[in-house]
């Protein structure tokens, strides 16, 4: 019987969590939650105790991203999957165009394609590892793209579509990019994300930074008489957020942990600090892969390599699944690739919560394992 591979403690990262979502939650955030457990958890989300935390989260998000004049931070339940449906009912007037280059962008496309009250969308696709781009098209009132494709590790800049029809909106999926990648919010109308990635919390919420044009569109669509399920009513989410609450009961721990994480990142220097820290982690893992004889970055074009999520391919004869299994047995977890890609690779989160030194330690552990497999 083969002896299990034991990685020496001095090679291991201090914290072995590298999941792309749910991601690492800072122990300090959990400790802060424990301190308020008896006065916050298990209390009414309509009362000041909880509304103050919703307000703290909204205020912190606005500060972190440098919210432009007129933009608002809107929060509601359900995560990004719920937001795709919310946007389908409440933001797309007639026809949308998508840039699809991974699993998560495809899910929004499906929601819109299945909606009987919308025209079939235009979809620009790219295979896994590449990027697709939006381009101006007459009659399109809503454009949608992903800033960071969690499944593949491709990232693209957030930029408005030149030549788009007047009044057309741009929706940017920042679920895994928001908080790790730089962004100019004036280049988009809705920058939406979830707290279980860079914002070091649990899932269950969606957070959208919305321009005045997007808010106006939501009200006009509702006033048009379109049927909108109450849970997916964007106007309700807007109006409830202005009251520092959500329409349905939120997960209170999620709200608190996200607010703690945002305050921590703001105290470190905000988005500029967070993007730099993620870039340092990215340099560590991509640099290692470029030097390695058995590993290479899955994304061949360096400009597309994400600083939020790294995907690393391994040569034939080196079993990435076996590496991930040994890592997990040694307390280094969630390095497995996105299942539907079907590649011999590892996927590593580079969110600001992750210490770049821990990413460097991870690469040493991988080398140690490969030498012994």
From TrEMBL:
Segment Disordered: which positions? 1-24
Q: Which reaction does it catalyse?
A: O-phospho-L-serine + 2-oxoglutarate = 3-phosphooxypyruvate + L-glutamate; 4-(phosphooxy)-L-threonine + 2-oxoglutarate = (R)-3-hydroxy-2-oxo-4-phosphooxybutanoate + L-glutamate
InterPro entries tied to this protein:
Aminotrans_V_dom, Pser_aminoTfrase, Pser_aminoTfrase_mycobac, PyrdxlP-dep_Trfase, PyrdxlP-dep_Trfase_major, PyrdxlP-dep_Trfase_small
Tell me which stretches of the chain form a coiled coil.
none
Annotated Basic and acidic residues bias = 1-15
Give a GO molecular function annotation for the protein: transaminase activity
**Pathway(s) where this gene product acts:** Amino-acid biosynthesis; L-serine biosynthesis; L-serine from 3-phospho-D-glycerate: step 2/3
Offer one Pfam family short name for this entry: Aminotran_5
Record carries keyword Lipid metabolism: no
* UniProt xrefs under SUPFAM superfamilies: PLP-dependent transferases
Any idea of its EC number? 2.6.1.52
Instruction: Look up the domain of life of the source.
Output: Bacteria
Keyword Lipid biosynthesis among record annotations: no
Query: Ranges for the Aminotransferase class V domain?
Result: 145-333
Cofactor names from the entry are: pyridoxal 5'-phosphate
Keyword list (alphabetical) reads: Amino-acid biosynthesis, Aminotransferase, Cytoplasm, Pyridoxal phosphate, Pyridoxine biosynthesis, Serine biosynthesis, Transferase
Q: Which PANTHER family match?
A: ALANINE--GLYOXYLATE AMINOTRANSFERASE, AMINOTRANSFERASE CLASS V
What family does the entry list? Belongs to the class-V pyridoxal-phosphate-dependent aminotransferase family. SerC subfamily.
Physiological role: Catalyzes the reversible conversion of 3-phosphohydroxypyruvate to phosphoserine and of 3-hydroxy-2-oxo-4-phosphonooxybutanoate to phosphohydroxythreonine.
Q: What is this protein called?
A: phosphoserine transaminase
Which species is this record about? Winogradskya humida
